[in-house]
């Protein structure tokens, strides 16, 4: 149960406390550990009798700022707490979860840097043979749905110890979500894990607040209104106003209701009303969503009620609507809390965290990371570490809003950048600390290569903005598109002693880069080693509009500049474009056109990807509902073409690999269906060759059988 009256909820503090300004916990006297301990023996060496917080993670412990457990571990350590790590424990009993004893404050449970199911299964649901986050890439070292399994074991180990869940797996499952692997909508992970609180997004602020609050004797229930957190509760806070968004079929003349500002739910109708107990907390007002703008209510004490779990499991259109609302409530400066009923309980989701300032980002990245895996792994190779050990993360967040990607849902749309100094210092650390450093920095990037220090020009406008993307359907006129901070950074990074080359491996938002040709020239001249991978993702506007990606003409323009500056630099360089097959909204005709585009541009892709419905992505809502949540949802609205069947998905993939003869029989059938047999032949204008005599004979035989 949460407090019935809150005068000044934490979430309304738009000027949050700096991460480094909290009084330190008493255990600060122990000082920073060389590595956070993973065993009792290491704790003894540090002189600790117990840990204050134990992080349980599905990844191997690598003490590096690209690994979530290291960031939160070092962050909490810097607040004075003693933090232990249990990495990739066996999960068939609670014993491994007792390895460091009972934590004084709480367990922090994470599925690691990737969702455990994406880590384990391919987009076609085949089991992967390796795991990049495990020593020697060994597969099978984490359970499916790691957060749920680990939380249950922590509970068994120490029943009374609070459990805090976080990381991408928990973050993207904070409300009811479509789960591709079981092909059904699952409850919020809070319910299945029985955790006390969920921290979503980059959770430094909430984590530091929570740890100090719990250390000071507050309960986790007391922290119910903390930004960036979600909890299970008995009902909404008393006295708040509910914006009812549980349905999409409001009567057309809703403004003629007798008292529109104190609308009473029709209980039979929605089933989403607060708990029916007589003493259950209840809002004072319920306002139907369509009347939200005209209504007079205190916005600081209002929340949005989403359709309940029971509703969305049976109603894909309502699911798409819930997804649309969640994405609209993503701006930390104007988002409302969300509530969603799960049986007799509610899941309460606070607004996202306020982004970190540059000095806070610098402070986090400046924590005393060893930049290596824990010594207990010996010489074992951890591929994810090898990949990032010489790369530098310069920013967080992405305002692109590509619907198939969940980065925005996790890290937010507002870019949080480090200072130049902090980045250059990290390059020097890599040079000095990483064994075998050859002089190459493998990346200076983040979720996107070229969003460093780019943000809305007007903080005032940004605070009210509800757009899903700053660059789609067009580049917003309020967006600062001056790439010179990135260009300057590249120049200074190249000048660091001992650095021979800086590569840029993060994905480039090339339509945005077009706004600053000087940046493109800098990139092409100094940071491309022969090939630059970029991701137009498709050639057809119908599909691109579902992805929220720019038209292919932006690619053509980028290629023109890429070629121009490559020639000017005297370098032979090539673009490698990436595409997605079977994205919702993409039909066979679109794939055929993409295939023809590839042929015309002489591309024969080797590695191709099929759409992977990740939890909470907008495209996943499209996949499940066959509706477009980028538009207002209606039951009678247009249905999207969605390839769900494995053969349909294979065919779409085959269009990308039209040059692979294994795909030709399937493609011939498809071309016949599409009435495009003119594309089967040996002429210049054809896509694939006709069948050979032998292939015809084989086919006949197969049919006879
Ligand atoms: S106003 Fe434009 S630039 Fe500013 S946040 Fe909104 S979409 Fe982005």
UniProtKB/TrEMBL annotation:
Cofactor binding mode, per the note? Binds 1 [4Fe-4S] cluster. The cluster is coordinated with 3 cysteines and an exchangeable S-adenosyl-L-methionine.
**PANTHER family annotated for this entry?**
UPF0313 PROTEIN YGIQ
Q: Which UniProt keywords apply?
A: 4Fe-4S, Iron, Iron-sulfur, Metal-binding, S-adenosyl-L-methionine
Does this entry carry the keyword Metal-binding? Answer: yes
> Which residue intervals define the domain Radical SAM core in the entry?
384-649
User: Domain of life here?
Assistant: Bacteria
Record-linked InterPro entries: Elp3/MiaA/NifB-like_rSAM, Methylthiotransferase_CS, rSAM, rSAM_horseshoe, rSAM_sf, UPF0313, UPF0313_C, UPF0313_N
Q: Which residues form a coiled coil?
A: none
Q: Which Pfam family is one of this chain's hits? A: DUF3362
Q: Where does [4Fe-4S] cluster bind?
A: 398, 402, 405
- Region annotation (Disordered) maps to 259-285, 681-705
The name this protein goes by in its record: YgiQ family radical SAM protein
User: What is the required cofactor set for this protein?
Assistant: [4Fe-4S] cluster
The transmembrane segments are none
Q: Give the record's family classification.
A: Belongs to the UPF0313 family.
UniProt-recorded Gene Ontology molecular function terms: 4 iron, 4 sulfur cluster binding; catalytic activity; iron ion binding
């Amino acid at each position: 149960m949460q407090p019935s009256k809150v005068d000044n909820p934490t979430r309304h503090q738009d000027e949050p406390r700096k991460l480094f300004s909290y009084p330190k916990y008493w255990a600060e006297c122990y000082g920073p550990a060389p590595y956070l301990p993973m065993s009792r023996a290491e704790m003894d060496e540090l002189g600790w009798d117990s840990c204050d917080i134990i992080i349980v993670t599905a990844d191997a412990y690598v003490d590096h700022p690209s690994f979530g457990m290291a960031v939160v571990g070092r962050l909490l350590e810097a607040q004075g707490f003693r933090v232990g790590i249990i990495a990739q424990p066996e999960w068939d009993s609670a014993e491994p979860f007792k390895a460091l004893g009972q934590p004084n404050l709480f367990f922090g449970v994470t599925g690691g840097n990737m969702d455990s199911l994406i880590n384990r299964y391919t987009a076609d649901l085949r089991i992967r043979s390796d795991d990049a986050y495990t020593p020697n890439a060994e597969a099978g070292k984490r359970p499916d749905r790691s957060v749920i399994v680990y939380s249950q074991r922590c509970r068994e180990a120490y029943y009374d110890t609070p459990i805090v869940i976080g990381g991408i797996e928990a973050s993207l499952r904070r409300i009811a979500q479509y789960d591709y692997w079981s092909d059904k909508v699952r409850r919020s992970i809070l319910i299945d894990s029985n955790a006390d609180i969920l921290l979503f997004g980059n959770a430094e602020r909430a984590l530091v607040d929570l740890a100090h609050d719990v250390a000071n004797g507050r309960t986790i229930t007391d922290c119910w209104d903390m930004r960036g957190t979600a909890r299970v509760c008995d009902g909404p806070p008393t006295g708040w106003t509910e914006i009812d968004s549980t349905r999409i079929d409001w009567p057309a003349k809703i403004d003629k209701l007798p008292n529109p500002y104190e609308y009473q739910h029709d209980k039979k109708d929605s089933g989403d009303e607060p708990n029916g107990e007589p003493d259950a907390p209840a809002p004072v007002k319920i306002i139907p969503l369509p009347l939200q703008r005209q209504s007079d209510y205190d916005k600081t004490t209002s929340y949005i009620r989403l359709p309940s779990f029971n509703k969305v499991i049976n109603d894909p259109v309502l699911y798409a609507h819930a997804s649309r609302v969640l994405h609209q409530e993503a701006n930390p400066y104007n988002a409302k809390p969300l509530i969603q009923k799960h049986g007799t309980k509610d899941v309460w989701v606070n607004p996202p965290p306020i982004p970190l300032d540059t000095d806070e980002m610098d402070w986090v990245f400046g924590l005393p990371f060893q930049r290596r895996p824990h010594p207990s792994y010996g010489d074992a190779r951890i591929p994810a570490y090898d990949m990032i050990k010489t790369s530098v993360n310069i920013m967080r967040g992405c305002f692109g809003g590509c619907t198939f990607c969940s980065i925005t849902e996790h890290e937010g749309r507002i870019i949080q950048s480090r200072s130049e100094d902090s980045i250059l210092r990290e390059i020097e650390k890599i040079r000095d600390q990483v064994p075998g450093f050859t002089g190459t920095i493998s990346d200076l990037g983040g979720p996107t290569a070229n969003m460093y220090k780019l943000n809305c020009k007007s903080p005032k406008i940004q605070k009210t903005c509800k757009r899903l993307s700053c660059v789609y359907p067009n580049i917003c006129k309020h967006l600062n598109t001056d790439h010179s901070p990135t260009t300057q950074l590249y120049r200074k990074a190249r000048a660091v002693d001992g650095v021979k080359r800086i590569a840029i491996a993060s994905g480039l938002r090339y339509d945005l880069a077009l706004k600053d040709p000087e940046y493109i020239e800098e990139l092409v001249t100094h940071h491309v080693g022969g090939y630059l991978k970029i991701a137009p993702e498709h050639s057809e506007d119908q599909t691109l509009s579902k992805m929220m990606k720019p038209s292919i003409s932006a690619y053509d323009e980028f290629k023109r500049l890429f070629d121009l500056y490559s020639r000017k630099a005297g370098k032979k360089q090539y673009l490698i474009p990436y595409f997605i097959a079977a994205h919702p909204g993409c039909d066979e005709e679109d794939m055929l056109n993409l295939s023809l585009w590839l042929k015309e541009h002489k591309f024969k892709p080797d590695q191709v990807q099929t759409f992977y419905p990740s939890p909470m992505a907008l495209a996943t809502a499209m996949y499940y509902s066959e509706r477009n949540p980028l538009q207002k949802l209606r039951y009678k609205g247009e249905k999207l073409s969605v390839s769900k069947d494995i053969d349909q998905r294979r065919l779409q993939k085959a269009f990308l690999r039209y040059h692979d003869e294994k795909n030709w029989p399937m493609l011939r059938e498809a071309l016949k269906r599409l009435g495009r047999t003119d594309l089967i032949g040996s002429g210049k204008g054809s896509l694939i060759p006709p069948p050979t005599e032998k292939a015809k004979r084989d086919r006949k035989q197969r049919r006879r059988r």
